[in-house]
Amino acid sequence: MGMSVTISVATEQDAEQIFRLQYLCFQSEAALYGNYRIAPLVQTLESVRQELVSDCVFVARLGDEVVGSVRGSITEDGAAAIGKLCVHPRLQGHGIGARLLRAAEAALAEERGATKFRLHTGHRSEGNLRLYRRVGYETVGTAEGTDGVPMIVLEKAAGAYVATA
Known about the structure:
single chain; about 160 residues; alpha+beta; 7-stranded mixed sheet
């Protein structure tokens, strides 16, 4: 029988694995838009290290390998901005993304006082939109990413994270 995927708080030692995983996972997003300059693909390793210190970062592990990650931080309006959710392509479709979201939501609400959760995804990213809607997010608007990609903005109330557990 195989190993189980575990979800835990990321450590500084995870930075390089998160960086490499993010680069791998966001290739398909870049291909959807014909834009390989999207933010997750141009982020530096040093920037990932800084996020590990300042943000709420969780990883999914299969043994010693980081196979998923998500980040969240509190914005000026008290919302938690959740981003860069990614799961290794070979493990997608097994609920790991939803588990990572739940861990980040719980920590952001309980430890950092988030009043609501906000995330965004590209307008063509149907798989992402299905996941986010399945776990309670609703579309609240649109925005343009710094890379020019049209984005859909989704939110849910902080109290709603319990319903996705």
